[in-house]
């Protein structure tokens, strides 16, 4: 009994230690457990779900490992006498049935909560951008602007040019995605989020989402749905800039400047830096930068 009591105290102290450590800064690399950091508020919520799930799994793992060690030590062979046989243990069997359901219910609850937070949309987003996918490139339209040709400002990719999507930092940015042909998927790895672009559901509930970027920078974007021969090269770049630079960029585009010229006018690289076109035979197709 004394040995069993000591083992119980050690297990309790280990569990308390894990729970105490979870109160530390969960934003450092260790607590991400290999998960990407993300550059949006929504990405932070997804990463915290991952961290919590791993910690819960570790706690359960330590308990299981402790029980295995305890069984090995306490029930090792001590002689030739046959130990007492137990046909069944009703309380233990009930616990075996209830605890997994509690664990599953907890994971389900937190997953749905984070999913709802990530998919939540504001009544009046700061910026709305229409994303049009087609085989095999992207078009980004800023519907609240008017270009020199009288049409909304837009950027469209070509076989020899990576399209650059410019968005402001620290603002709610809504994407209304649509497909001109087959199912594509709008994916920015640093957002920790991707959304399938379903044709025939333009601006529908399933084709709209928002992000709140909190770090400036350039981030590669990809199509994450097998959509045809050149799916692997259907890349784009997201350029997150300050709110003032974003307004200056749109103003330059409205005056007739190209995407390259407008980006250079605000001190940004005129071409994509995270991905580049890839030459295949006589044509160009996009590929990620080395």
TrEMBL record:
<dbReference type="InterPro" id="IPR036257">
    <property type="entry name" value="Cyt_c_oxidase_su2_TM_sf"/>
</dbReference>
<dbReference type="GO" id="GO:0004129">
    <property type="term" value="F:cytochrome-c oxidase activity"/>
</dbReference>
<feature type="transmembrane region" description="Helical">
    <location>
        <begin position="50"/>
        <end position="73"/>
    </location>
</feature>
<keyword id="KW-1278">Translocase</keyword>
<keyword id="KW-0812">Transmembrane</keyword>
<keyword id="KW-0472">Membrane</keyword>
<keyword id="KW-0813">Transport</keyword>
<comment type="function">
    <text>Subunits I and II form the functional core of the enzyme complex. Electrons originating in cytochrome c are transferred via heme a and Cu(A) to the binuclear center formed by heme a3 and Cu(B).</text>
</comment>
<dbReference type="InterPro" id="IPR002429">
    <property type="entry name" value="CcO_II-like_C"/>
</dbReference>
<dbReference type="GO" id="GO:0016491">
    <property type="term" value="F:oxidoreductase activity"/>
</dbReference>
<dbReference type="InterPro" id="IPR045187">
    <property type="entry name" value="CcO_II"/>
</dbReference>
<protein>
    <recommendedName>
        <fullName>cytochrome-c oxidase</fullName>
        <ecNumber>7.1.1.9</ecNumber>
    </recommendedName>
</protein>
<dbReference type="Pfam" id="PF00116">
    <property type="entry name" value="COX2"/>
</dbReference>
<feature type="region of interest" description="Disordered">
    <location>
        <begin position="260"/>
        <end position="290"/>
    </location>
</feature>
<dbReference type="GO" id="GO:0016020">
    <property type="term" value="C:membrane"/>
</dbReference>
<feature type="transmembrane region" description="Helical">
    <location>
        <begin position="94"/>
        <end position="114"/>
    </location>
</feature>
<dbReference type="InterPro" id="IPR001505">
    <property type="entry name" value="Copper_CuA"/>
</dbReference>
<dbReference type="InterPro" id="IPR014222">
    <property type="entry name" value="Cyt_c_oxidase_su2"/>
</dbReference>
<comment type="similarity">
    <text>Belongs to the cytochrome c oxidase subunit 2 family.</text>
</comment>
<keyword id="KW-0186">Copper</keyword>
<keyword id="KW-0249">Electron transport</keyword>
<keyword id="KW-1133">Transmembrane helix</keyword>
<dbReference type="GO" id="GO:0042773">
    <property type="term" value="P:ATP synthesis coupled electron transport"/>
</dbReference>
<dbReference type="GO" id="GO:0005507">
    <property type="term" value="F:copper ion binding"/>
</dbReference>
<dbReference type="InterPro" id="IPR008972">
    <property type="entry name" value="Cupredoxin"/>
</dbReference>
<keyword id="KW-0479">Metal-binding</keyword>
<keyword id="KW-0679">Respiratory chain</keyword>
<feature type="domain" description="Cytochrome oxidase subunit II copper A binding">
    <location>
        <begin position="124"/>
        <end position="252"/>
    </location>
</feature>
């Amino acid at each position: 009994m004394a040995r069993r009591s000591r083992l119980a105290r050690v297990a309790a102290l280990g569990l308390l230690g894990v729970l105490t450590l979870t109160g530390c800064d969960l934003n450092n690399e260790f607590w991400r457990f290999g998960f990407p950091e993300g550059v949006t508020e929504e990405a932070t919520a997804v990463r915290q779900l991952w961290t919590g799930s791993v910690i819960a799994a570790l706690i359960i793992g330590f308990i299981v490992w402790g029980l295995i060690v305890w069984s090995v030590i306490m029930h090792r062979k001590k002689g030739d006498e046959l130990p007492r046989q137990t046909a069944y243990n009703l309380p233990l069997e009930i616990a075996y049935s209830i605890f997994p359901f509690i664990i599953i219910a907890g994971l389900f609850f937190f997953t749905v909560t984070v999913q709802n937070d990530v998919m939540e949309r504001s009544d009046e987003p700061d910026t709305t951008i229409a994303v049009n996918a087609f085989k095999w490139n992207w078009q980004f339209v800023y519907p609240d602007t008017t270009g020199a040709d009288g049409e909304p400002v837009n950027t469209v990719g070509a076989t020899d040019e990576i399209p650059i999507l410019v968005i402001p930092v620290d603002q709610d940015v809504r994407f209304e995605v649509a497909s001109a042909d087959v199912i594509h998927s709008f994916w920015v790895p640093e957002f920790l989020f991707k959304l399938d672009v379903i044709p025939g559901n333009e601006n529908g509930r399933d084709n709209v989402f928002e992000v709140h970027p909190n770090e400036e920078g350039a981030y590669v974007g990809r199509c994450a749905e097998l959509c045809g021969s050149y799916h692997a090269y259907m890349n784009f770049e997201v350029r997150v800039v300050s709110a003032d630079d974003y307004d200056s960029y749109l103003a330059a585009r409205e005056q007739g400047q190209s995407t390259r010229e407008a980006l250079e006018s605000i001190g940004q690289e005129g071409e994509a830096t995270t991905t580049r076109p890839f030459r295949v035979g006589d044509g160009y197709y996009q590929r990620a930068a080395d």
